[in-house]
Amino acid sequence: MNDPRPALTALPLLPTGTVYGVLMNFPGELTAMGEAAHQPPYLSPPRAPVLYIKPANTFSPPEAAVAVPTELEAVEVGATVALVLGTGGQVAALRLLADVSEPHGNHFRPPVKSRCRDGFLVVGAAVETHAAPRPEGCVLTLAFDGQPVQTIHFDALVRPPATLLADVTEFMTLHTGDHLMLGCDRPVPLARPGQRVELSCPGLPTLAFTLTREAA
């Protein structure tokens, strides 16, 4: 009997495709922008998903030591869930991701450099959809040094997972192995070198890593 589940050739430790992040998918992000969302150059909140890419140089495995550049006192740690695409553009798996970035003030069009430092995307183990929780039912806890700093509910997204995927694929093609992050809620917590970061969500493997100071 054929297996009807959307398949990946494997569930590798690190992504084999392109990893896309999405901005403005939590109500708090739009609230944080306030009137700026209606001022030039934007003039109105986005009508389509606002995407960015985390290139392969940013990928780090679980338990990685992520180096913080010497000029930064702290980094933002965006905790999120990613949809992993399988055959036919269907979701084949879920995984936790820690989207690390330099603190910045432009949350509509953040500078590429702030998000694309080496090691700035820590990737959890992928779980096939038949064994994973529904993405819209995920509740993710972010902790620093064992102390919870943020709880993220994915049932209140501007675009729920299925809608986000449909809206993105209206204007671009996602391929097997590509990842689509569901977004990072605001405010994004700041972590400092020396801290251990842990992401946990029922039904998905816990993702942990340590921030270190980049060598001079």
Radius of gyration: 17 Å
What does the overall shape look like?
Answer: globular
What's the architecture, going by CATH? Alpha-Beta Complex
Main pleated-sheet profile: 9 strands, mixed
Provide mean pLDDT, rounded: 90
CATH fold field value: Fumarylacetoacetate hydrolase, domain 2
Q: Which structural category do the helix and sheet elements fall into?
A: mainly beta
Structure description:
- The structure is a single chain.
- The protein is mainly beta and 216 residues long.
- The chain has a single domain (19-213), classed as Fumarylacetoacetate hydrolase, domain 2 (Alpha-Beta Complex).
- It has helices at residues 27-33, 112-115, 161-169, and strands at 19-23, 50-54, 59-60, 65-68, 75-85, 91-101, 121-123, 127-128, 139-144, 147-153, 179-181, 190-191, 196-201, 204-213.
- The strands form two sheets. Strands 1, 2, 3, 5, 6, 7, 8, 11 and 12 form a nine-stranded mixed β-sheet that branches. Strands 4-14-13-9-10 form a five-stranded mixed β-sheet, with no helix packed on it.
- It is globular and about 45 Å long.
- The termini are far apart.
- The mean pLDDT is 90.
